[in-house]
Amino acid sequence: MCAQTIARTHFSRRDFLKLGLTGTAAVTLAGSRLLKVISTAQAKDAYYTEVYPTSPLILDPFRDPLPIPRALAPIPYSEVGTWAKPPGSGDGQQNSYGNERHQIWPNMIGYPDPLIYKITLQVSAHAFTTSQVLPIDNGGKPTISFDSDGNMYPAGAVRTLPPSTIYGFNGTFPGPRINAEYGKPVLIRFVNRLDENPDNLDRQDFGAPDWSFLTHLHNAHTAPESDGNPFYTMKKNIGHGYEPGTWCDNLYLNWPAGGDDSEKQSFFWFHDHRMDHTGSNVYKGMVGLYPIYDPKNNMDMGDETKGLRLPGMRTNNPDGSFDVEYDIPLAIYDCRLDDGVTLHNDVHDNEFPNADNPRAHPEWWGKTFYKHFVNHGFVGDIFTVNGTAYPVLEVKRRKYRLRFLNASIARIYDFQLMSSTSGPKSAVSLGYGGDELDGQYRIPDGQQCMRLVQIATDGGLIPAPLTRDSFELWPAKRREFIVDFTRYMDGTPTKKGDVIYLTNVMKMGDGRMWDASRRFSPDPDYKVPVLKIVIGDDAPDNSVIPTALRPLPALPNVDWKKMLNNRKIFETQRGSFGMEAEWLINGMPFDPSQPARSLKNPAGKTPLAQQKLGSYDVWEIRNGGGGWVHPLHLHMEEHRVLMRNGKAVPPADPGHPDDISKEDVIALDPGESVIIGRYFRDFVGPYVGHCHNLTHEDHAMMFGWEIVP
Ligand SMILES: [Cu+2]
Questions:
Q1: Best CA proximity match to 403, nearest among 317, 486, 510, 289
Q2: Which of 667, 670, 684, 582 has the alpha carbon at shortest distance from 632?
Q3: Which is higher by pLDDT, 122 or 575?
Q4: Quick one: pLDDT at residue 652?
Q5: 204 Cα to the center of ligand 1, angstroms
Q6: Pairing of strands 639-644, 647-648
Q7: Is 546 left (phi over 0), alpha (psi -120 to 50) or beta?
Q8: Cα(348) to centroid(ligand 1), Å
Q9: What is the enclosing helix (H) or strand (E) of 393?
Q10: Residue 308 and residue 324: Cα distance in Å, rounded?
Q11: If you count DSSP H runs as helices and E runs as strands, how many of each does the chain have, helices first?
Q12: Cβ atoms of 564 and 620 closer than 8 Å
């Protein structure tokens, strides 16, 4: 089916105006105010109206169980052999265009043939909750709601949410989980079937309009053709992404950079990276999980009786996959549901002619609402874990390994483990309105009750565990912890039935930066429970909290201080071009035709962002200011922070404790500067660096760089 044949929705713009005239005052008011915005739509600022709907209140939170994805099974080679175009190492075998090959096939590094997986991009439906909801307005008052048949419901009517339309890996959100192991390569055939829509789901007005995708395994050590980055696809004339009917084979060697064991990592995720629509595709569901274990010397193989003895009990399944109990990924994602009266008005509207924007969409009431182009970055008011809003997890009385991932567009979280005697209260019942409704619930009497022992960052296991009272989680970052659910931080044992809340204490009303966090102007009243944890039965526990984990890779045999004058400098800025090129690096929007150029360094040079294969270099990543924070992600090898704000690391800046580890996302507070050291090994070709506030990325805060032979 092609775009033109998608059924038109029941509401036309005229219907909406009619509803505005004959419906309630609230609709008329909203309609007339917003129509005034339309009349000045030529003005650039009209696109910056950060007018969001208020999601309906989830009335019965913390009842839906936390979904814990099971491991996807590889496809038997006997079946792969029947494919018309099976994967392989030859020319033209990497994608359906037949124009690329894999740069390093596993046998070239002495590795076995890859396990083969197949993941299909599918249009599907997803429910964030089974709870009933109460539609509320920005002031927290009950308000009208709608359905897809054109009915309007009066204020105070309790409703069941319609499912949201997703573009998902195998049609689920989050997508499949692949449990990988170092030394065992994985090849995933990603197949685009987003043109098929058997249930005739309404695609709404976000998600790449040409239904293309581009999958990046963040931040695996991967050749450009498997990296899923738009600098590569644009240079190779593949385009913005892989379109419906096409496929590509992403080969993940599960091989540490430089063959160096100390470069191993532990938790990847795969997500969309389609040029200009990464945010809308990720928000529409393209998120998958990829923990990676290390069987060498049994160090970290998901078996707590061996190696480092990190929490986890491994079951090898007959289908070739394995699952690890007590080792739980937690993908955090915030969303916002349509209220049916908020205007859809976006610089991308011309890409979605069926939506007939600008207008409100009462027929989309209760489904995910997205704005591509907002001034700061899209934030939601409903917080979800593994695709479920406010879930509950029953744990055994023992230690767990929790792998946190921030899969949100722009929101940063600051998490603590809290207890609460009186339990969650809706923010509405506490008298809040506006942005203070974000998160919907609070635990006013919440008190920190447990600490978390950090064992890993983006770059994998850290040298030694860090005991934390709280931790920030910036977009795309991963942080892993051991939590001992047998006792509280004061030493008191837990009891069956005790309740602990994973609680967000960072208030962020838009994507610019926090309004309140533990580091800056904390708001002791902003305590939003995200996940309810209930203590269950005792269970055997052979895990330990090791005193040492994985040593950092050795620094190169050069004095990096002597390299500082010739460093490459990349600065994030908000530009004056506006629109699609709002967000810049070194004054330029992303240019897919060539690598970026450094700002002038102290030696007076402006080198191209180009590195010789096998080199090591010093880069500076700078936040050009303006009061925005930027989570700046560099593809390819993880970096080590050498200096932050002019001070050598270690010791780490107290606000950025992960600076002592390997990382792939740099957390840049406003005005900060970080100098990093990086290797460029094993593969040649185009890669990118970009802000992982996906609104910024999609509006050009990205730069191309490359490794040359
Ligand atoms: Cu940014």
A1: 289
A2: 667
A3: 122
A4: 94
A5: 26
A6: antiparallel
A7: beta
A8: 19
A9: strand 392-397
A10: 15
A11: 8, 42
A12: no
Instruction: For residue 244, say if its preceding peptide bond is cis, omega within 30 degrees of 0.
Output: no
Residue 114 has what pLDDT?
Answer: 98
- What pLDDT was estimated at residue 47? 56
Virtual torsion, Cα 136, 141, 144, 145, nearest 10 deg:
10
Give the Å distance between the CA of 585 and the centre of ligand 1: 10
How far is ligand 1, taken at its centre, from the CA of residue 273, in Å? 15
The residue type at 128: F
- The alpha carbon of 513 and the centre of ligand 1 are apart by a number of angstroms equal to 10
In a 13 Å sphere around the CA of 97, the CA atoms on its Cβ side amount to 14
Q: How far is the CA of 630 from the centre of ligand 1 (A)?
A: 4
Which residue reads 């270690």 in tokens?
Answer: 650
Euclidean distance between CA atoms 207 and 276, whole angstroms: 10
Q: Residue 45, SS3?
A: helix
Write out pLDDT tens, residues 580-633.
Answer: 777 899 999 999 999 999 999 999 999 999 999 999 999 999 999 788 999 999
Question: Using CA atoms in the order 82, 84, 88, 91, what is the torsion angle rounded to 10 degrees?
Answer: 160
What are residue 334's phi and psi, to 5 degrees? -110, 140
CA angle 579, 582, 583 (to 5 degrees): 155
Furthest-apart CA atoms within the chain: distance in Å: 76
Nearest-angstrom CA–CA distance, 620 and 604: 15
State in Å: Cα 629 to ligand 1 middle.
6
Per the model's pLDDT, the better-predicted residue between 376 and 5 turns out to be 376
How far apart CA 398 and CA 311 sit, in angstroms, is: 9
Helix (H, G, I), strand (E, B) or coil at 235: helix
Strand duo 382-385 + 392-397: pairing: unpaired
- Cα(78) to ligand 1 centroid in Å equals 46
* Sequence-distant (≥ 6) Cβ neighbours of residue 322 within 8 angstroms: 71, 179, 302, 314, 315, 316
Strands (E), 564-701: 568-574, 583-585, 610-612, 615-623, 630-634, 639-644, 647-648, 662-663, 665-668, 673-680, 685-691
CB atoms under 10 Å from CB of 278, counted, come to 26
What's the 695 CA to ligand 1 centre distance in angstroms?
A: 8
**49 pLDDT above the threshold of 70:** no
Amino acid at 484: D
What pTM does this model have?
Answer: 0.93
- Judge whether residue 578 has pLDDT over 70: no
The predicted pLDDT at position 34 comes to: 28
Task: Show Cβ contacts of residue 202 under 8 Å, excluding neighbours closer than 6 positions.
Answer: 9, 148, 165, 363, 364, 367
* 25-39 helix and 13-22 helix, angle to the nearest 10 degrees: 130
Distance 584 CA to ligand 1 centre (A): 9
Distance 697 CA to ligand 1 centre (A): 7
What dihedral do alpha carbons 170, 172, 174, 178 form, nearest 10°? -30
| CA count, 13 A, side-chain hemisphere, 528 | 29
Res 50: pLDDT: 72
Residues 6+ apart with CB under 8 A from 43: none
All residues at 6 or more sequence positions from 529 whose CB lies less than 8 Å from its CB, including other chains = 62, 390, 418, 420, 424, 441, 442, 443, 446, 501, 502, 503
CA of 314 to the centre of ligand 1 (A): 39
pLDDT at 32 over 50: no
Tokens of 33: 């105010």
In the reported structure, the alpha carbon of residue 299 is separated from the centroid of ligand 1 by a whole-number distance in angstroms of: 36
